[in-house]
Design a protein that fits this description.
Blueprint lengths: L7 E4 L6 H13 L8 E7 L3 E7 L4 E4 L7 H14 L13 E6 L6 H14 L7 E7 L4 H4 L6 E4 L5 H5 L11 H6 L4 H10 L12 H16 L8 H14 L5 H14 L6 H12 L11 H17 L9 E2 L5 E2 L18 E2 L2 E2 L11 E8 L2 E8 L1
Parallel strand pairs: 1-6, 1-7, 4-5, 5-6
Antiparallel strand pairs: 2-3, 3-4, 8-9, 10-11, 12-13
Helix pairs in contact: 2-3, 8-10, 8-12, 9-12, 10-11, 11-12
């Protein structure tokens, strides 16, 4: 069977080798070699937008996160230009069909997936069609569910640690579980390390994006499970973390997915019922990518913080405290922080209260007592 005649859907976790597998299949089918890194080409879409596309002698690759929030317009015009025009891919040495791979397709928006579906039905599925489309994704998302039935699914699992330790091409220092995790179970990454450290002894592992999210979620959980009422400083701290995550050139869905993965890795810090509620909150988040007003991303992390705080049985322990400087400082006895100038009454925002106005953990209601001559009255205000 010629694998190039079928639309393939490569599904697997980060670092499992989905794109590597796709490229090997292309090399085998064409009896050739794909030289890395791939050639980068820019295509003008619309009036002034340039889309970057990666090319080999046999196929093209489009990285979906690079299309930003305009993926609906860009991906539609790109695929139509590739499949409908005879001269765009004239340099390809492949057979009659023009092969395009959509990388990291789990970042596709719903409007973009609808556009891709119409292109597949027009240029890929007919027997005499001119194009062929492959996609790689880390997980099955709602938009990808619209495309699933048009592809042959190929799952690419991550190599197990037990299999990692049995490989002869990996030296003993790199057979540890930590090395396996940092190499994402990919032997080719271990081979790259051996080019710089022939014995496999690495003085210090470089930091990863995953490490940043692990530290951020750990700090958020530690602050949320304290019995101390939160202040508006948590809002400023979360805003700073969101802008740092955006500086890593990640899309909104990738930021929320990275937070969810970090919560899974830090599950031991949460009670079971709190863990599942936290994951549910991240599932319902609306991660719109915006560098100017990333309110949806901030709301997702604020809701995560509030869910952990209101559902945890608080213990009287000392934990780091988030201050207005967006840094963490150890709890120490001392006078309470002064009220901001001009603030006479306690305020709250999105379920967060100041030190002077604690919100009950379960109901989210603040109770105030008013005295009147001869009668005591209690008024309840819903936060």
């Amino acid at each position: 069977m010629n694998c190039l005649s079928l639309p393939w859907f490569f599904l697997g976790p980060t670092g499992s080798g989905k794109l590597t597998t796709a490229r090997k299949w292309i090399e085998t089918a064409n009896n050739g070699t794909i030289t890395l890194p791939l050639e980068s080409r820019n295509f003008t879409v619309g009036d002034d937008y340039e889309a970057r596309v990666y090319a080999s002698p046999y196929h093209f690759e489009i990285d979906i996160p690079n299309l930003s929030m305009q993926d609906k317009q860009i991906i539609g015009e790109l695929l139509t230009k590739f499949f409908a025009s005879a001269d765009v891919l004239s340099s390809l040495r492949s057979s009659t069909r023009k092969l395009v791979i959509l990388r990291r397709a789990h970042s596709l928006s719903l409007p973009a997936a609808i556009r891709v579906r119409s292109i597949i039905e027009q240029y890929v599925l007919p027997p005499d069609a001119a194009g062929m489309l492959w996609i790689t994704a880390r997980e099955m998302t709602g938009p990808l569910a619209l495309l699933e039935d048009a592809f042959v699914k190929h799952r690419v699992p991550r190599m197990l640690h037990a299999d990692w330790t049995k490989r002869d091409d990996i030296p003993a220092p790199l057979k540890t579980e930590d090395a396996w995790d940092r190499c994402l179970g990919r032997p080719e990454r271990a081979q790259e390390i051996l080019k710089f450290f022939p014995t496999g002894d690495i003085p210090t592992w470089p930091r990863r994006i995953q490490d940043y999210y692990d530290e951020m979620i750990e700090m958020l959980i530690e602050q949320a499970i304290t019995a101390k009422p939160p202040t508006l400083a948590i809002v400023l701290w979360i805003r700073g973390r969101v802008y740092q995550a955006l500086s890593l050139c990640q899309t909104g869905p990738e930021i929320i997915d990275s937070c969810a993965a970090a919560v899974q890795r830090k599950y031991s810090m949460l009670e079971p019922q709190v863990f599942w509620k936290a994951m549910s909150v991240l599932t319902l988040a609306e991660p719109h990518t915006s560098y100017r007003t990333p309110l949806s991303l901030e709301a997702g992390l604020l809701n995560l913080f509030d869910t952990i705080r209101t559902n945890t049985v608080h213990k009287k322990e000392k934990h780091p405290t988030i201050t207005n400087t967006n840094e963490l400082t150890a709890d120490s006895p001392g006078p309470k922080s002064a009220k901001p100038a001009g603030l006479k009454k306690s305020t709250s925002i999105v379920g967060f209260a100041t030190n002077d106005s604690p919100v009950p953990a379960e109901s989210g209601e603040a109770t105030s007592t008013k005295k009147s001559p001869g009668k005591r009255r209690t008024a309840t205000h819903t936060a």
